[in-house]
Amino acid sequence: MKYLVGIYGREHAETTGRLEALLEELTESGELIGGETLADPVGTRTVRVRGGVPEIADGPFGGTGDQLAGYVLVDCESIERATEIAARLPGAGSGAVEVRPIMDLSGQEM
């Protein structure tokens, strides 16, 4: 099953080594699909369409106080395993980490 593990908050330089070690472990186990750290949210735009008209605002306004800082895509046996991985990410200690199943275009979980 594939999961998106969304990391909310800000990653700090001192956590880089721990993150790299975890990503290396997930690569070796075959569970890592990919992931990225996102750029500073200063360049973010939020788009909402209301009444057929796009409303565009500068900034990350997803309805949460935390900002999406990055993500990891994993392919593992269960949501319990994906949650275990999420708990080991450095962002879990200072922000929040969301685990969400990925669906294919037909709406079936992958």
From TrEMBL:
Pfam families registered for this protein in UniProt: YCII
Cross-referenced SUPFAM superfamilies: Dimeric alpha+beta barrel
Domain YCII-related: 1-105
Organism: Actinoallomurus bryophytorum
Protein name, per record: YCII-related domain-containing protein
Entry similarity comment: Belongs to the YciI family.
Coiled-coil segments: none
PANTHER family registered for this protein in UniProt: BLL7171 PROTEIN, BLL7171 PROTEIN-RELATED
InterPro entries: Dimeric_a/b-barrel, YCII
